[in-house]
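4.2 Preliminary Data

To establish feasibility before requesting continued support, the project team ran the inverse folding procedure on a target of 238 residues. The structure was first converted into the token representation described in Section 3, and no sequence information of any kind was made available to the design step. The complete token record follows.
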């Protein structure tokens, strides 16, 4: 099975991507085939595999991003369709299109899942400066998620005013754009010092979770690998 409809990315010209405001992000349906999306949705990794990450301090006093998190590593006991999908993401076709759109020569990936329960949110933030960007794949369907519960990625326009090293509230932004995130949608986001995004507090029934799979796009550079080794940080790269 092909999980990716790579032509959806190929059809996006880089000039069109860079022209999107308030910063380049591509929120669209169909980067996954419908059959691929459904097979992945039917085989989500079990919550028992996840690490509970609540109350962790963030840069510049930003509020914690409370959630369950699972970082992918080879040999991990996740369902077969997910291993096959990640293998496809590691192929030349997807890697080349992401590098083209984000303006990178060479990229490497990290993969992780976030499951977020009711009452939790994602405070406004920009991603780490080491990243080229990220690709968020959403895994809640119309059958299991009510839009009134929230959970959508919010793209925030700071008008170029806010410092990357700050902790602004949603009310401080000039505009808020809500991404489509129910069904076969994804968001490819270029990382900048003003690429702010967030998620409002989720209000869903007990036992329901906002589910996202994230491809983090990093530069394939020796500098970062040496730096991570020196500070004892272990990052699985693909």
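Position-by-position output of the design step:
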């Amino acid at each position: 099975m092909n999980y990716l409809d790579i032509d959806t990315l190929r059809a996006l010209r880089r000039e069109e991507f860079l022209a999107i405001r308030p910063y380049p992000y591509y929120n669209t349906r169909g980067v996954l085939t419908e059959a691929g999306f459904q097979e992945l949705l039917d085989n989500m990794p079990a919550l028992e595999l996840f690490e509970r990450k609540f109350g962790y301090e963030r840069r510049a006093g930003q509020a914690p991003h409370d959630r369950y998190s699972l970082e992918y590593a080879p040999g991990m006991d996740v369902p077969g369709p997910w291993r096959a999908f990640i293998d496809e993401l590691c192929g030349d076709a997807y890697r080349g299109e992401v590098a083209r759109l984000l303006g990178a020569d060479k990229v490497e990936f990290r993969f992780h899942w976030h499951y977020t329960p009711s009452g939790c949110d994602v405070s406004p933030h920009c991603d780490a400066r080491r990243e080229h960007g990220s690709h968020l794949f959403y895994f809640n369907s119309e059958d299991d998620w009510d839009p009134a519960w929230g959970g959508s990625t919010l793209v925030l326009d700071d008008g170029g005013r806010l410092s990357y090293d700050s902790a602004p509230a949603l009310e401080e932004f000039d505009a808020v754009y809500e991404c489509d995130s129910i069904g076969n949608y994804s968001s490819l986001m270029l990382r900048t010092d003003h690429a702010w995004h967030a998620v409002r507090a989720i209000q869903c029934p007990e036992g329901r979770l906002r589910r996202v799979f994230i491809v983090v796009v990093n530069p394939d550079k020796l500098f970062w690998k040496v730096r991570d080794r020196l500070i004892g940080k272990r990052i699985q790269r693909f």
